[in-house]
Specification:
Blueprint: H1 2-17, H2 26-29, H3 36-46, H4 56-74, H5 76-79, H6 90-97, H7 108-121, H8 129-143, H9 146-153, H10 175-210, E1 215-216, E2 221-222
Antiparallel strand pairs: 1-2
Length: 224
């Protein structure tokens, strides 16, 4: 988004890079001006950015690197002894490997995320968000993996059906109508079979959730 991008550049200059004096940042801050691209191009030259303004991803990455270097230079004593969070102890590594162990199912962000996924995948809502999350996982594994999508995308070749071998059960008095009724009945049977298959899949999915010994809905935790 153009406006987001321009605001981002202004924020970087105002908060982190600070190459211009405050009074010299007016043109860059005027993000709605038609001349903003020219001001931005001048800014890129002034900070010695090696990329062109058309190369936005590279420009953003370079400006962020510059901001980080300047931030570190201003607070070297604060950051020099810092270590990555994952390197402090093995417990953190284990927690990162199993993010669902201490999952807070009452967190509003968690609930909103699960609800958004459920709506997107057309999954029935449930009072327990953890149950909904498990249903989402099952659906993704069974329907949205590359193998499942490839299998579903394969064209199905129907088998020829001899209508005369299927008894309609009634007579309309018209041979054409009789044949059309036979075709409709066969299509209806096929739809019923597909519905039964989906019902069976839903039952299996529910059983997989209920029978999972690692899930304790009362604690709202997984893996304990």
């Amino acid at each position: 988004d153009e406006t987001e991008f321009r605001n981002f550049i202004v924020w970087l200059e105002d908060q982190k890079i600070r190459h211009y004096k405050i009074e010299d940042r007016g043109n860059l801050r005027n993000i709605h001006s038609d001349d903003w691209p020219k001001s931005f191009e001048k800014y890129m030259k002034d900070v010695n950015c090696p990329f062109k303004i058309q190369e936005r991803q590279e420009t953003v990455d370079w400006l962020l690197g510059l901001a980080v270097r300047l931030e570190y230079g201003d607070n070297a004593d604060k950051y020099k002894d810092s270590t990555p969070d994952g390197g402090k102890n093995t417990d953190n590594t284990a927690k990162n490997a199993e993010p669902l162990i201490n999952l807070d199912v009452n967190n509003p962000d968690f609930k909103a995320g699960v609800m958004a996924l459920a709506n997107l995948l057309q999954i029935q809502r449930h009072d327990d968000y953890l149950v909904m999350l498990k249903a989402i996982r099952i659906l993704v594994q069974e329907r949205l993996t590359q193998d499942a999508i490839a299998k579903a995308s394969q064209s199905k070749e129907g088998l020829p059906v001899a209508l005369e071998k299927h008894i309609l059960g009634f007579d309309t008095g018209d041979a054409v109508l009789n044949e059309a009724a036979q075709i409709l009945r066969l299509l209806h049977i096929e739809e019923l079979r597909e519905l039964q298959t989906k019902i069976n899949e839903a039952i299996v999915a529910v059983q997989a959730i209920i029978a999972d010994p690692k899930t304790d809905h009362r604690l709202g935790k997984v893996g304990r």
